[in-house]
Amino acid sequence: MPVLRKTEYTGRITWLGHVPADRGLQAQPIDRLDLGFAGVSGGRHEGENRASCVRVKNLYSQGTEIRNVRQLTVLSEEELAQIAADMGMDRLDPAHLGATIVLRGIPDFTFVPPSSRLQGQDGVTLTVDMENRPCVLPGREIEKDHAGFGARFKPAAQNRRGITAWVERPGSLSLGGELTLFVPDQRAWAP
Q: Residue 17 needs a FRET pair 20 to 30 A away by CA distance; which of 5, 31, 103, 164 works?
């Protein structure tokens, strides 16, 4: 029996972005994304390793070199719409959130299990690290273009911020392409 089970869910790529290493969080919309083992070439989160941050402060002192499992930020189009509605906005631009990929069609996306895989038709494969918890940085980007809305992001994005992921098998992604969800074939942890 396979360790990763193919699900009935496939996400269609509705948005792709590149966050340059020297430009803060703001992503630039693009039509195609070429992924290597280090993630997006020239991207903010490029690299096979990275310095540890506050997300793992209970494990390492800040700045300790660790494996980079945050190469990509993947969001759900449906969850973005819910965030925007709760913020009182018609639409939330994924560029403000530093998004790499936006998918449509995978329900409860932010909570797909860690170690799940998203695989493209040509074999490009992304491994899900974990939920990408809301922080204040996207709110600052939103505030620049939509005064008075930035502070609304963090509470509205709770449980809807998508996931972080890393490249397991390099390849390319294009707008309109699809990624199929594979989940670990194991029971939930029950200590």
A: 5
